[in-house]
Amino acid sequence: MSELEERNNIDVEIAELFHENWMPSFSQADSIGRKKEVDLVLWGEVAYAADEGNKIYLNIKYQATSDYARRENLGGLKQGQTELQPFDYSDLLLSGTLLLPIQYVIDWAVGNKSSKQRLWGKAAKDFTRVYEALDQQDSLMEISLLRTIAAMHMNNQKFIQARAVLHEAMHLETKRADVFNQMGMSFVMEKQHLDSALLYLDSAIVLDPTNHVYFGGRSSAYSALNRHSLAIEDLKKELELAPEFFIAQGNLANSYDVTGRFDEALIELDLAIAKAEAAGNNNFICSMYHCRKANILIKKHERKLPVTGSTVDKRKLITNLGLAKIELDKAEKLQNGPFYYTVLGYYLQVAGKQREAIGAYQIADTIYAIKGEETRRASALNGIATVYYNEGYLEEALKEYNRAIAFDPDNQVIRNNRENLYRKMREQ
């Protein structure tokens, strides 16, 4: 391993594919790079430019070919391009090209690799190195990199570090609304100082009231504060600005769900599924929405609420629990992830199949554990505890409630369940 590879923890292949009368297309260079299983391919004249330490143009739109490079007459990249992976940050696309030193290109690839591997702390350091090497006169690139570094810190639950980076970004004039929104969302993700979150999110909306994302962000802050009517207003505004944004439709359904407006939630989830299907390649999202419909229908069954909706006309004898099973079957055909198994456990529990319910909850817990999603394990463990509680195994139930609370200390529903268990244990 070369010193460069060791420092960056990345496999770099200098593929000198240039021949006197032949230059491979980008797709051919791409294919060679993938067969070699490298992260970054530098080829043709780009390889020579890298060896000489010259600055080169890097086209980051991925689909560019050597013909594009020749047509645009890009200096230093006359017969090809580099970088097998597209950049994830669209606001860094400056007319399709960037004038960058080769080490900058490699540092970017390192940061992207760390991000894709969910190594958030390392990614923050990688992108910080890119930022420190940046020409500070480029304010658009500067603010984009600062926001990227902050996002890595937020993913790593390092909210203080994220806000320190965003404070630096606030001194720039470019994209200040985005910075205010991200600052507000750092408080929402941390579940701390939500009034401060609202101040930043309000400021973002004042600066740009046409950006639907800001209304969605503020709705999440309102939801965290249990101000659901205001969250619903913001989500409706978000859908006015972005009618096809199915994520907002799903979030609106969630706000209706937590306020007991189950039938309205089901309508919004149907709309969200239709929009997600129309957008394409959204099996995961559609599966989740079918699971959420099932979850609501099970709650309706438990509360003995009437069957409603268009399905009733076709299946007059079906129950809410029966409808929930239909939604779970639809979800399973699309993608049966951990949320599916959590809701399946809930369905089996209500249907009286307690041992099967524990099995489904355990599968969900195992998948969440493998994925490192510790907070989400709480819902599966809560399900296991509730089954034990209903079956009279109180000590086992207490053990699982304690485990769930350890993973999600702020979950009031699980804490209430444990309090009910304590009361029952005292009564005995």
Structural description of this entry:
It is a single chain. By secondary structure, the chain is mainly alpha-helical. Among the domains are: 113 residues, no CATH class; 93 residues, Serine Threonine Protein Phosphatase 5, Tetratricopeptide repeat; 70 residues, Tetratricopeptide repeat domain (Serine Threonine Protein Phosphatase 5, Tetratricopeptide repeat, Alpha Horseshoe), CATH 1.25.40.10. The chain has 22 helices and four strands. The strands form two sheets. The chain has a two-stranded parallel sheet. α7 runs parallel beside α9, α10 runs antiparallel to α11 and α13 runs antiparallel to α14. The longest helix is centred in the C-terminal third of the chain and has 20 residues. The chain is globular and about 70 Å long. The relative contact order is 0.04.
Annotate the secondary structure layout.
Elements: H1 3-8, E1 12-15, H2 26-36, E2 40-43, H3 45-52, E3 55-59, H4 66-72, E4 97-101, H5 102-116, H6 120-132, H7 139-155, H8 159-169, H9 176-190, H10 194-207, H11 212-224, H12 228-241, H13 246-258, H14 262-279, H15 283-302, H16 311-314, H17 320-334, H18 338-350, H19 354-371, H20 374-391, H21 394-407, H22 412-427
Parallel strand pairs: 1-2
Antiparallel strand pairs: 3-4
Helix pairs in contact: 5-6, 6-7, 7-8, 7-9, 8-9, 9-10, 9-11, 10-11, 11-12, 12-13, 13-14, 14-15, 15-17, 15-18, 17-18, 18-19, 18-20, 19-20, 20-21, 21-22
User: DSSP helix count?
Assistant: 22
Largest sheet: 2 strands, parallel
Q: How many DSSP-defined strands?
A: 4
Give the helix level as a range of percent. 55-70%
Strand order of the largest sheet: 1-2
